[in-house]
Amino acid sequence: MAAPKPEEISHPPMDQLQGLEYCIDSNPSWGETIALGFQHYILALGTAVMIPSFLVPLMGGSDGDKVRVVQTLLFVEGINTLLQTLFGTRLPTVIGGSYAFMVPIISIIHDSSLQRIEDPHLRFLNTMRAVQGALIVASSIQIILGYSQMWAICSRFFSPLGMVPVIALVGFGLFDRGFPVVGHCVEIGIPMLILFVAFSQCMQYLKNFQIRQLPILERFALLISTTVIWAYAHLLTASGAYKHRPDLTQVNCRTDRANLISSAPWIKIPYPLQWGAPTFDAGHAFGMMAAVLVSLIESTGAYKAASRLASATPPPAHVLSRGIGWQGIGILLNGLFGTLTGSTVSVENVGLLGSTRVGSRRVIQISAGFMIFFSMLGKFGALFASIPFPIFAAVYCVLFGLVSSVGLSFLQFTNMNSMRNLFIAGVALFLGLSIPEYFREYTAKALHGPAHTRAGWFNDFLNTIFFSSPTVALLVAVFLDNTLDYKDSAKDRGMPWWAKFRTFKGDSRNEEFYTLPFNLNRFFPPS
Q: At a CB cut-off of 8 Å and minimum separation 6, what does 399 contact?
């Protein structure tokens, strides 16, 4: 038997991911685009409902307050997504709520001055205003770093090797949002997981299964499987299967326990300062600034992943910094409207680009329209928002993993026969998982983070930073990558490939993917 040729046992590195049906600036038919946009909207509902459902009761809010917060969050998500896809990075990314803000917000909720308020609704309003004030002040971090191009300067220290752990842990770091939540209701979660995997990959099993040359099941796997399992969950609920089950099981499995539909108004348009004038506290703002930094780092990794799943080149430093500036504007809007969390790139929606193989920017803009529309029509939006959480968690198991694998794909531009590279990638990945897990376990047992001094803002700052897997990975990977024999290892790090994407004019394709609309580049020339 003849020895295999080198090209038969290796694959050449590729700037753009192949196998996508539509890239960033190509669009499906209008009917398909609208259906895909609605699918992204349904997926975005998971985080938009989960965060308020956890935080609002802690603040003393009612079901009506929870519905208003969900509506407001979706409304601002739609605005931020449109701004980002039009004027920011222009990548097909949904800008949604972020779990990175949970630590400082919970700290504000437990502030003694707010806990002393006896009236639950008054406590909710005062807590909301305190969170708003902290978000408004903290948003200045991303606005300054983005529009001053300081983040573009920082990105000069990034290499393909340094970005691998960051992008990979953008997905892997959310493992606790996946199967642990599926396990809360296995009779719904596991069928959803199996069905979604089967539908999304059916083209790989059934190569000839097409209807009018349109791979229906693969492209709309989320909508179809969610509809089937949601109907199945409703059937279990109506049949009384959960009638005598524990409360936790009922909350996670039943389709009628969210109390969103009954509490939602028919029409309600969110507006700035709807909860009253924000209040400002220096300690709250400092703690929130850590969450803004974490959001910045996580979004940087997600933007890199989105560019690959949209079959675009990596965003140049100028474009990345521009996107961070607009994301800062988004957090400012979060504070003004009162969404109870800040903004970041929705990782699950990035994963859906790969699952559907449609990286079209227009699809995401249509999904933003759905977010704004249904956030104003309260009853209709609440209907979709009542989907049980384990259904979303089952989808996350696939989509978070897909985003993580995109991060690992950047290893193709590096030399993984180098012990230096193996050390950096392995240590950054391990510590990026291990350190946040330590912080989570410590907090669950002690009811406070490992950083526990008299300075609450200092505690919030450190605990927030080290709760984030991508942030820990960035700190470790970038430090090691720029201190361990970095001058003689440029080729091993992947820098020759990376260098041409650092500037807007470094690659001719950047103009196609990242040029501003309406000929705005005349006024804001790229660097």
A: 43, 171, 347, 348, 350, 351, 352, 354, 355
pLDDT of residue 1 exceeding 70: no
Q: 72 is written with which tokens?
A: 């407001």
CB of 199 closer than 8 Å to CB of 217 = yes
Count of domains for the chain:
1
Q: Would you state the structure tokens that stand for residue 77, as one six-digit string?
A: 């998500």
What is the C-alpha to C-alpha distance for residues 455 and 336, in angstroms, rounded to an integer? 27
Both tokens of residue 334? 């979060």
11 burial via Cβ count (<10 Å: 0-12, 13-18, 19+): exposed
Is 345 contained in some domain? Answer: yes
Q: Bridge-partner residues for 262, per DSSP? A: none
Q: What residue type is 270 in one-letter code?
A: P
Distances (CA, A) of 146 to 153, 323, 478: 10, 7, 20
Residue 523 maps to a domain? no
Model pLDDT for residues 14-65, shown as the tens digit of each residue: 777 777 889 998 999 999 999 999 999 999 999 999 999 999 999 999 988 9
Quick check: pTM over 0.90?
yes
In whole angstroms, what is the distance from residue 338 CA to residue 390 CA?
27
Tokens coding 127: 């807590």
Residue at 506 is within a domain = no
Query: Is 470 within a domain?
Result: no
Q: How far is CA 516 from the centre of its chain?
A: 23
- In this structure, the number of other CB atoms found within 10 A of the CB of residue 310 comes to 29
CA distance 523 to 505: 17
Band of the pLDDT at 213, cuts 50, 70, 90?
A: low
Give CA–CA dist 339/334, Å, rounded: 5
Query: Measured in whole angstroms, how far is the alpha carbon of residue 199 from the centre of its chain?
Result: 23
Look up the domain containing 54 and give its range.
30-411
Handedness of CA 57, 59, 63, 68 (dihedral sign): negative
- At 441-455, the pLDDT tens digits run 999 999 888 988 888
Highest mean pLDDT among 59-63, 249-253, 384-388: 59-63
Supply the angle between the helices 282-309 and 347-356 in degrees, to the nearest 10: 10
At 475, list the tokens: 């700190």
Is pLDDT at 9 greater than 70 in this prediction? Answer: no
CA distance 316 to 152: 8
Strand partners, 345: 95
Instruction: Give the model confidence (pLDDT) of 491-512 as tens digits.
Output: 899 888 888 887 777 677 778 8
Mean pLDDT computed over 160-188: 94
Return mean pLDDT, the chain: 90
